[in-house]
Amino acid sequence: MQILVLGDDGPDLAAIKNAVRLGQFELLAAQTPSLPAPASGARYQFAGWTLSVATRDLSGEGGRRAELTSSEFDLLIAFLHRPGQALSRDDLVRVLRGRAWDYLDRSIDTLVARLRKKIDATSGPSLLRSVRGVGYVFCATVAREDGDRH
Questions:
Q1: How many domains does the chain have?
Q2: 8 and 57 together in one domain
Q3: Cα 84–chain centre separation
Q4: What sign results for the dihedral spanned by CA atoms 127, 116, 102, 132?
Q5: DSSP count for the chain of H helices, then E strands
Q6: Which domain holds residue 8?
Q7: What is the pLDDT of residues 87-129, one digit of tens each?
Q8: Is 11 inside any structural domain?
Q9: Segment among 6-20, 43-57, 106-120 with least mean pLDDT
Q10: Are residues 33 and 50 in contact, defined by beta-carbon separation less than 8 angstroms?
């Protein structure tokens, strides 16, 4: 199988036409960059919660703890890396599952709902806001324990 990489110099049109004619090509979707892996000793603080990456422990005020599944933890990390920015369902599925999102796939919505139940206070606005036609926004200020703001 031929693999053609198109660079700045311009594609060799004859080679592309030949590969297409012979059926020797593969279409690859552009990948969204994955989020950087959090440092193992990192601790994030937001809305009264503290997340320890090393122990995967999420604790709130008064010693309240939230048990997170691996998927919920990964989703929370994705939001903590981009607070205040809308993350599309496609972005979230690519980060969490490594595949493209299908509009019939409601797994991200279910996962967000489960995470909301665990981290939202009984009163007040939700930390995870739905943006119709876009995805979700994490609506809290996030700080590393060392004081760096994201």
A1: 2
A2: no
A3: 13
A4: negative
A5: 4, 8
A6: 1-30
A7: 998 888 888 876 555 556 678 899 999 999 999 876 678 899 9
A8: yes
A9: 6-20
A10: no
